[in-house]
């Protein structure tokens, strides 16, 4: 086997831990000095730390991966956030019809905080950009009741009465579902990283100017 093949195989070999003890924290670097907070390795470590300990065994293969694999993982992670967000919003907005496909009641009952956070986040963003009929000079109407039940009622009333709030609630709901799926998205991104890193390498080879 060539040296490159040996290095590739070693990059994905799970780390062995003595006495079958779980490591205190997942580290993507083995040097005594951690990387810069803005480096790809540091960003990947922050993302992987969001997984519960029971799921971190699925991400250990990324521990000793080369930087090209770390970059591929970060790109996949962003894609698994953007694609479901846009896809779910399109499903809710164009295919929901009378609203039967919009699981707002269920999401507000189980994940009301995420839905309310998504609605607030995108309402502010739409006001700043003045999209979908929102204007910067419109005063926001904060609710004094912070309970999930009040947030659900407020969201449903806005969704039924105002088309621009229908859009922001649908985007907020898609954001909440995407956020809930974070562990699945991380594991799927790690699983697809070797394949996607090879795709990126072939793409760079195609667009790189040929040496004369």
TrEMBL record:
It holds the Pfam family FLILHELTA. Residues 23-43 are annotated as: Disordered. InterPro entries: MRX11 (IPR018811). Keywords: Membrane, Transmembrane, Transmembrane helix. The chain crosses the membrane at residues 70-96. This is Mitochondrial seryl-tRNA synthetase. It comes from Sporothrix epigloea.
């Amino acid at each position: 086997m060539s040296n490159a093949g040996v290095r590739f195989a070693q990059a994905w070999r799970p780390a062995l831990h003595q006495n079958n003890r779980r490591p205190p924290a997942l580290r993507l670097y083995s040097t005594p000095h951690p990387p810069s907070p803005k480096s790809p390795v540091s960003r990947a470590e922050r993302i992987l730390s969001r997984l519960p300990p029971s799921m971190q065994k699925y991400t250990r293969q990324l521990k000793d991966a080369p930087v090209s694999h770390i970059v591929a993982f970060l790109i996949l992670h962003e894609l698994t956030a953007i694609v479901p967000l846009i896809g779910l919003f399109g499903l809710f907005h164009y295919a929901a019809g009378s609203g039967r496909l919009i699981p707002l009641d269920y999401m507000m009952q189980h994940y009301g905080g995420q839905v309310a956070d998504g609605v607030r986040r995108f309402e502010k963003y739409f006001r700043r950009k003045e999209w979908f009929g929102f204007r910067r000079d419109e005063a926001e109407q904060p609710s004094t009741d912070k309970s999930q039940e009040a947030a659900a009622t407020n969201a449903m009333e806005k969704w039924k009465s105002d088309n621009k709030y229908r859009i922001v609630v649908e985007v907020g709901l898609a954001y909440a579902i995407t956020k809930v799926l974070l562990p699945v998205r991380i594991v799927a991104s790690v699983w697809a990283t070797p394949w996607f890193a090879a795709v990126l390498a072939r793409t760079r080879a195609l667009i790189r100017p040929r040496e004369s």
